[in-house]
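REQUEST ID: PR-0412
SUBMITTED BY: lab tech R.K.
PRIORITY: routine
TASK: structure prediction, single protein chain
INPUT:
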Amino acid sequence: MRVEIQDRETVGSPEDIYTTATVPAKAGNNVVAPAIVASTRLRIDAKPFLKSLGNAVQPGGESVISFFIRVNGAKLYPYDGSNNTWGDPQNPSELPARIQLPRGALFEIMATSTDAANSWRATGRAFIEYEDF
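STATUS: complete
OUTPUT:
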């Protein structure tokens, strides 16, 4: 019996998801839906992996904006709002280990605000790498 080991192969260049959106002010005690900062539907023809992340908010908003990632509507740990600094969007931080994501999933970078008076501009960026085995 012959066993052949195949190396993984990256399919194309990583998908670059990079946009800026306005995060609305919190209206008093009312709950405001999170703002979608960046969103994409992942490919189904190859295995997607989250490779790197970056985020930013306009100056002054760092203490009132929380970022998190949703995949098919569920928060993705550890990027679930508990850690707001992912890296500079111009030069996103590579993750210590890639995170495999479901094929065809809806990937979203979200942001919420605790500021009742101001809206803030938020930027999110992610690189998704695809592999074919």
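NOTES: The beta strands are 9-10, 15-23, 35-41, 47-57, 65-71, 74-75, 93-100, 106-113, 120-132.
REVIEWED BY: pending
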